[in-house]
Design brief:
The protein is an all-alpha fold and about 140 residues long. Helices cover about 95% and strands about 0% of the residues. It has two helices and no strands.
């Protein structure tokens, strides 16, 4: 019986040591997991910024090319209209002027509409990319936690 308190004390001490060791190991694991999670988040944010920059550059390039094509088209159209004006001035000056003005007005409307469509499509594509990146980050974080 006299040895029972000593045995209980020894078992209690061993249990305390095991608990402290487990707590220390868990703290180390938690710190490592937090560090890895933070590093992964920084990497994902960096990738998102890089993708955004690349996407913006590609979008700008696409808009410039489209604008150049539209401008070239409008120049050719203006040259054609000028020729038509010269040819038809002798025939029917009053009606043709109105036709030319209407044609130019329609072309300008189409040009503005095309530019707005390009900008809208670019914005929609970028939003889809942002949503996909955010979803990927959330999925990653849910797996990391």
């Amino acid at each position: 019986m006299a040895e029972l308190p000593k045995l209980l004390q020894k078992i209690s001490k061993e249990n305390d040591e095991r608990i402290q060791k487990a707590v220390l190991n868990n703290q180390k694991r938690t710190e490592l997991l937090s560090k890895n999670t933070d590093e992964n988040i920084e990497e994902i944010v960096g990738c998102d910024e890089e993708l955004h920059e690349l996407y913006t550059l590609e979008t700008d390039k696409y808009v410039k090319i489209s604008t150049a094509e539209i401008n070239e088209y409008l120049k050719l159209l203006a040259a054609l209209i000028e020729q038509r004006v010269q040819l038809s001035t002798a025939i029917d000056n009053a009606n043709f002027k109105k036709e030319v003005v209407d044609c130019i007005h329609k072309r300008n409307k189409k040009f503005i509409r095309d530019n707005q469509t390009i900008k809208l499509q670019s914005a929609q594509d970028y939003e889809r990319l942002k949503i996909a990146n955010a979803k990927g980050l959330n999925d990653f974080l849910s797996l990391a936690l």
